[in-house]
Amino acid sequence: MTQLLEKALSQVAKLPASEQDAVAAIVMEELASEQRWADSFAKSQDLVAKLAEKALVEYATGRTKPL
Fold first, then answer.
1. Distance CA 32, CA 39 (A)
2. Could you tell me if 12 and 25 are in contact, meaning their C-beta atoms sit under 8 angstroms apart?
3. Rounded-to-integer distance, Cα 30 and Cα 65, Å
4. Exposed end of the chain (fewer CB within 10 Å): N or C?
5. The model scores a pTM over 0.90
């Protein structure tokens, strides 16, 4: 565990139980959200690769315009 996380948890430990639970719920939701993003990104890698390949072909064949 990092020092910063230890410091944060030390501060949280000083709070009343209900506030500790509220902080825990926020942290757990954030972790779940990050996991959903990671899962979504992992599932999209093939699609992103195909779109990139298509864009490179369009660029190489002169079918793109500068922005």
1. 10
2. no
3. 40
4. C
5. no
